[in-house]
């Protein structure tokens, strides 16, 4: 059984381990995430539009950033 909460979770967590949490931004996250192909390859449910896909990943980013 995997400890990955959702597809791409490990990439999100790794991003925050490798950046200064006081200066990180969502656009920087999108550019630098090592597994950004995961975001497009297997999108979460109900994300037929780009807005939905962006919203899901922004929520995940904020949850890990603990903003």
TrEMBL record:
<protein>
    <submittedName>
        <fullName>3548_t:CDS:1</fullName>
    </submittedName>
</protein>
